[in-house]
Amino acid sequence: MNILIIGNGAREHVFATEITKSRSNRLQASKSDLGIFSLNANCGLSAISKNTNVDISDFISIKEIILNNSIDMVLVGPEIPLINGITDFINNDPDLKHINVIGPSKRGSMIEGSKEFAKNFMNKYGIPTASYKSFDSSTFTQGVDFIKNNNPPYVLKADGPAAGKGVLIVDSEEEAIKNLEDMLLNSKFGKSSEKVVIEEFLDGIEMSCFILFDGLNYKILPYAKDYKRIGEGDKGLNTGGMGAVSPVDFLDDKLKNKIKKEIIEPTINGLINEKIDYVGFIFIGLINVGGHPKVIEYNARMGDPETQVVLPRIKTDFVDLLIACSNQNLGQIDLKLDPDYFANVVLASKGYPEKYDKGYEITFEDDIPNSLTYHAGTTFGPRGNPLTNGGRVLSVVSRGKTMDEALKKSYESIDKINFEGKTFRKDIGFDL
After folding, report:
1. pLDDT for 147-167, tens place per residue?
2. CATH (domain of 164)
């Protein structure tokens, strides 16, 4: 069985790592081997997959890779190919329609591709979320009036995908109006902010819920908590994510049951009722407001940096999960979880999430036996040495009997990793 992974970040490095574990199990059991293939691989992915340098939006070239390498399954990591319809492309192509794709259709991906679509979906199916109103350039003045008639803080969200940076929380009316102008009239986030959702600010603690859905059955994967802002104490600009932990201690059985009944089940039933073709992961960004869970956003994929702490906690074979998902057999899978804590601290380039330089050599002072290092923005230099090649460079993940133990190991390992401009948060897990 050959699996093509689309995407080249830390999330995809985790995917490949988990598939490698499965491959080892299958070989030991005299089952068929697993081939792992990737596109534009970072250093970590390159070490465990066969790589081809092809743009992930070039579906025709991806088709050639699928056919030339006898690919059986395509596992899609990032949102852009999903939103652009890669699943539909494969399913509708007569040469490819036999390929199993883990990733929703273009219509299913709209839960992430359009904040307005997601909000309307939530309202239709009674899923608790913040109140909101959406605006475009033609209704800019109404948006200004909306801000003036409501109290701070203000939450402004670019309707389309913006790499985790399209959500602004501002404390002053003047700043909110200026940001609305930048987004709608000055294209701050390009096409993604041609429409802006302004919503009620929810005061609470956030968490991440992950679902694997086969179109009929679903499994709830481990919960996690991520840290989006660049600065400690959750200050500064939003990023793609600076760290994550799992499990989440404040999430008790009562709250889990509420989430399942009020959010997960209506979401699943809504997708089925709308006849949306959805096979893959669902990310539900949640906030606990005084014991009442509400949805902040949906993603049509696994999150990053959460994948780095969620998948290592799953003891059930990852490939078996994917196969069951593609065959609509998830209901027959016994999902087994590791009770230990996993902590991820992201190493980023200086200047991220704004302008940053790349091409700096990454060195490891010693082996890092207590941590897993997942590559994100890395590439090989002329001597085969790893270089920085992105805003987020590495994820350093550790395991412990407590969260503090796991975090301690990650920070100890970080001390052994060096590159110019190395930036990271020293307070991951501070609010737990």
Report:
1. 998 889 999 999 888 776 788
2. 3.30.1490.20
